[in-house]
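User: I'm preparing a small set of examples for a lab meeting where we compare how different chains pack in three dimensions. I only have the primary sequence for this one, and I'd like the structure in token form so I can line it up with the others. Please keep the answer compact; I'll paste it straight into my notes.
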Amino acid sequence: MRRKAALILLALAVFFAALSPLLRWYAFPRLAKIPANEYQTMVLEAKNATLLDYDGMTARTVPKVTIVQTLKGNVEASEKIEKTAGRDVVVWDGLSYIQGPDGKMVSKVPERYIFDAHTQEPVHATGESVDGDPVRREGIEFKWPFLTEKRDYQYFDAQTRTTAPIHYKGTQTFRGLEVYYFEQTVPWTKVSMPKILPVAGITPEDVAKTGTTRWYTTVRKFWVEPVTGAPVYGEEIHQEELRGGTLLAGREKVTAFAGHVKMREDYIEHTLSVVKSNRSLVLLLTSYLPWGFLTLGLLLLTLSLWLEARARRPRQPTPAEPAAPQPVTA
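Assistant: Understood. Below is the structure token output for the 330-residue chain.
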């Protein structure tokens, strides 16, 4: 019986030991993915910002500028692209909506972002765009890969429609959570006018005829939870200018928007709670279960060897009972 039990335990030990790397290196890359129906809303604010007054074409200081960023998963579009892409695809229809302190729109820029659900690498397909203009993204946007590494990544900038490195600057603690800090500086670059302008009846084509151009620079900062690859906090030191042309009435340039953009407090708390929950699920597949199964396999192997040794141990011979005295015969 001991040998039979030892063989059963040995088989279980081999099973759990083999399951450990399979779960980490085979199952996890296939199970961990962004759901196609994801919906996210983020509110950011720039307090005491500079904003262009289009009536007089002069810059003025305002108490607050609000940026609402929405990302909505388009399931129908992702299923359509998956048929030809041959992999799990996520399509995010995004909208960056900026409003002034009076609640009126400053700008509104739609965006379609198509990427691999597992790796977050861009998937190039019809519809990939920023503000209605077709683009071909390289690098990440909005989210880092699962199990983010301590290195630089290529990051797509929607304003310039270009990709540049976003640099890993070190590991920090953000509200009790270990995060990786990334930073990217976009130098002054000439960019397109938004298709929808805050002045009724004026189009980007009308502005182009005046010779006035739009320029932009930013310092982009992200604090990323490395297990999930999700930013838990972000900031931008953002500047936009209109330069030259008859629209400025002889002036060389005027600030269109300048401010230190930060996530609003209630959205920081919400983001942290969601990320911590998702972090536990990812760790379950990458750490808790693989190491647990490996430890269990070693324990079962040890128990199996112990039972086998007990089974092979020679038994002590039982002492013979003394023979009964025989009667003596003459």
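A couple of notes for your slides: Helices lie at 2-31, 75-85, 204-210, 265-312. The first helix runs from residue 2 to 31.

User: Perfect, thanks.
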